[in-house]
Q: What sequence folds into this?
């Protein structure tokens, strides 16, 4: 992922420095496990010496890999040099116990899962922060009237706080999925060439995984099955879709024709090189664009599940790109939305103007029910309401002066709904008498768990 979208905290996780540091810890833990068992020649003193002297240098590893064309061998060679640096010539080298009975995937796959846990922890924190902001803003705008839209068309009155609340609930579900996916990928495997423990005791695997906070894979092949990784990638894609949903809604509300909400526009910011008046939702558009990357990368993870027999390497190159990019992109998306939703600019007067833009058409559903209550059939009531509604629509569409929807109904002898009932119906708050139930539920929403 390009630096433009990489936050240092997330970028570090997928750096070679972090990967090598995890590799070093796994190798040291494996030596300590062997020493604990006492079944091979390594002593606890040697294991302690290895821990104290183990190190690596990225540039040196790179130089060795340029010759070996094998990253694990290059790392082990470099680490061994540091371990044995002060050992006198002719003395047994402690580094001989490093990687004992292991294969490259024992090291790489266990480390990768640990990295994915680290990265998921950041996203979990991101999701909590955004969810808490959405919940707070929902209550702040609990009574801010606006029009609800279905199919992009005005439907019925609602409050803007419900939008924030809906996002909060979806983010809570995303949080649950991220927590579950974290547990699903927190596995390690140190089981040898094809998972038979042919040259290493299962105790080593259990010891290493326990100290890393991972679960040992109950039956790995040479690799940890990629269904773990695919599930996580699917959760990232779903979470990205939530971010895209939030961004898309605000983008739609920021359109000049609507202008009910707007992403913050900083002092000194420029919207267009040609049109000085522009205030474009560029950050929200970026969120939508990056969502496509995260969702597309999920397909890469699904394709990585089916490997040849006990392992091939076709997954490796793809996931080195896709996994890091997905985490970095989603983290950046969260950071953008945390700032935007927290500082989202709202225009309540414009919301009110939009609410009445269709001259009362949004109250049609209540009129329909009121007519049914007078004793006529639903079909008859629907015909009366629709005929007057369509007449109002035509005038609205053509920007023609005319009577309101209510005035047309009052002029229609077939509409026998009393005037005082129409007063009640044409009050937007009559549609919202039960939203306290919605906000009572939202009050119980908790992002701390």
A:
């Amino acid at each position: 992922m390009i630096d433009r979208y990489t936050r240092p905290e997330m970028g570090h996780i997928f750096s070679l420095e972090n990967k090598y540091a995890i590799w070093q810890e796994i190798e040291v833990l494996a030596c300590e496990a062997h020493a604990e068992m006492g079944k091979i020649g390594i002593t606890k003193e040697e294991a302690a010496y290895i821990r104290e002297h183990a190190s690596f240098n990225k540039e040196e590893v790179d130089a060795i890999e340029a010759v070996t064309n094998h990253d694990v061998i290059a790392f082990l060679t470099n680490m061994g040099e540091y371990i044995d640096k002060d050992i006198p010539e002719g003395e047994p080298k402690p580094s001989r116990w490093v990687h004992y009975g292991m294969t490259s995937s024992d090291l790489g796959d266990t480390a990768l899962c640990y990295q994915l846990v680290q990265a998921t922890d950041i996203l979990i924190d991101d999701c909590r922060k955004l969810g808490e902001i959405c919940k707070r803003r929902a209550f702040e705008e609990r009574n801010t009237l606006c029009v609800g839209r279905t199919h992009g068309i005005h439907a019925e009155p609602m409050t803007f706080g419900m939008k924030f609340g809906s996002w909060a609930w979806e983010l809570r579900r995303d949080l649950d999925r991220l927590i579950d996916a974290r547990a699903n990928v927190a596995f390690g495997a140190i089981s040898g060439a094809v998972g038979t423990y042919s040259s290493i005791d299962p105790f080593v695997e259990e010891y290493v995984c326990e100290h890393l906070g991972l679960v040992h894979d109950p039956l790995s092949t040479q690799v940890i099955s990629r269904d773990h990784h695919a599930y996580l990638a699917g959760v990232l894609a779903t979470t990205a879709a939530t971010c895209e949903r939030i961004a898309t809604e605000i983008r739609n509300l920021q359109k000049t024709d609507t202008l009910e909400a707007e992403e913050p526009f900083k002092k000194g910011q420029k919207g267009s090189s040609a049109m000085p008046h522009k205030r474009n939702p560029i950050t929200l558009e970026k969120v939508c664009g990056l969502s496509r990357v995260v969702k597309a990368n999920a397909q890469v993870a699904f394709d990585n599940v089916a490997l040849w027999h006990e392992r091939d390497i076709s997954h490796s190159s793809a996931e080195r790109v896709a996994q890091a990019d997905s985490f970095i992109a989603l983290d950046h998306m969260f950071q953008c939305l945390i700032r935007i939703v927290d500082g989202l600019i709202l225009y309540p007067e414009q919301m009110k103007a939009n609410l009445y833009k269709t001259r009362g058409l949004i109250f049609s559903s209540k009129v329909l029910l009121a007519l049914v209550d007078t004793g006529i059939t639903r079909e008859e009531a629907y015909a009366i309401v629709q005929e007057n509604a369509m007449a109002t629509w035509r005038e609205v569409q053509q920007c023609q002066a005319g009577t309101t929807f209510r005035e047309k109904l009052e002029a229609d002898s077939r509409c026998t709904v009393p005037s005082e009932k129409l007063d009640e119906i044409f009050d937007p708050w009559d549609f919202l008498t039960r939203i306290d139930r919605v906000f009572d539920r939202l009050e119980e929403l908790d992002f701390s768990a």
About this structure: The mean pLDDT is 96. The chain is about 60% helix and 5% strand. Residues 263 and 300 are 33 Å apart (CA to CA).
